[in-house]
Amino acid sequence: MSVLVLVAPGSEEIETVAIVDTLVRAGIEVVLASCCPAGERQIRASRGVQLVADCHLDELTIRDFEAIVVPGGLPGSEVIRDTPLAIELLKAQAALGRWRAAICAAPVVVLQHHGLLEEARVTCHPGFQSHLSAAQLATDRVVRDEAHRLITSQGPGSAIEFALELVRVLRDDALAERVAAPMVLP
């Protein structure tokens, strides 16, 4: 099985690339799928970097993923929020009790908007934390809610830690440590 990473025009490039790169370093197959409304695979990310997805979301031949990951960035998170197939896949993933992960604006803009946070403890970019209830908000850089099979994180600076947490839950701690070591993380 593989991990689906959604990307759209205006997605945060550091988050997107850090997630894909870290998972690939762990030997996890990744499908980077564009949610571009025009059906294109190439997107311009939030800071103008051009990214090319493996496929457009509409071209997916499988819909069975170990995890589905949503990078942040605006307006990328809004585009993903407004992509019916992306939300259908995220809802199915939650219903199956499989891992979902979102970083930066995406926990609020995508998941909360569609009722996909439930009562999970989550974090997000500090600029969006006021949208979460005090009971739900955690201010750690990366938050794993085991009961809801949800990992959230704050932003570009925590993207590698976020991706390593995905490696931990999808594989194990030892692999996450082996992947992190040559990356020279603090």
TrEMBL record:
InterPro entries, A to Z: Class_I_gatase-like (IPR029062), DJ-1 (IPR006287), DJ-1/PfpI (IPR002818), Prot/Nucl_acid_deglycase (IPR050325)
Coiled-coil positions: none
Record domain DJ-1/PfpI: where: 1-168
UniProt-listed NCBIfam families: not_thiJ
Name the UniProt record assigns to this protein: DJ-1 family glyoxalase III
Native species: Aeromonas enteropelogenes (Aeromonas trota)
